[in-house]
Amino acid sequence: MNILDKIVADKRIEVELKKSIIPTTQLENSVLFDRKTNSLANALRNSTTGIIAEHKRRSPSKAVINQKVSVQDVAIGYQKAEVCGMSILTDGKYFGGSLDDLLLTRASVELPLLRKEFIIDEYQLLEAKAYGADVILLIAAVLTRDQIKSLSEFAKSLSLDVLLEVHNQEELEKSIMPTLDMLGVNNRNLKTFEVSTDISKSLSDQIPDDFVKVSESGISSIEAIKDLKQYGYKGFLIGENFMKTENPGTSAIEFIQNLK
Ligand SMILES: O=P(O)(O)OC[C@@H](O)[C@@H](O)c1c[nH]c2ccccc12
Fold first, then answer.
1. Pocket perturbation via mutation, ligand 1, pick of 216, 221, 225, 255 by most ligand atoms within 8 A of CB
2. What is its EC number (predicted)?
3. CATH number, domain with residue 91
4. How many domains does the chain have?
């Protein structure tokens, strides 16, 4: 079993356990559930920088990234940096995140927030809404076309933006459908952890223009972004490069100033 299969197998168990404790009505009755969402796709369309900054404490590819900073401080720092949106890892076992991280971020900033999670069930979309997300991630490598269709339709019915993530041509071909807002190319292979922005470049011309193109992972230089912009990318998802520093917000401020 590769790491992605393991994560998803654990996630299935986790979701079933949660379903048995917290009924969907409880999620639907939460204060944030009817909040008006803030579109990340629109923010990216109107931006010249396009940075989506991530909160990530650790990952399977890197044991410790940052266990010291508080999620609120990171969020406030990213907002000061004028990022377009923020991504919050909510998986606990492999990434050290939680839904509480999402909630605390929602309470701290107005930015569009992406729930970064391994989504396999509609229940997780209700959770995303209840904890203040504006955007959800669907990973093509772990979903069938039918699942992508039903999950993205359900997300749209909740006014959530959908970012669909692919890593190769086959995943891209099976996934294209009108209920997606953004297409993200993950430069990191989630099965082997190899990273290269060449994958974003090679897939770019196969992504129809109606979708906002996002390049994800392994981005650490202004040059890489300038280069990816030539290929039509409007969004750049950056985690480690900011999170590995003592003050991720300050690092994002400096980075974005140099990009302008
Ligand atoms: O820290 P990086 O290399 O800048 O990557 C951020 C983000 O793209 C990465 O965390 C990510 C992309 N897709 C994912 C899916 C699940 C978990 C994590 C991810």
1. 216
2. 4.1.1.48
3. 3.20.20.70
4. 1
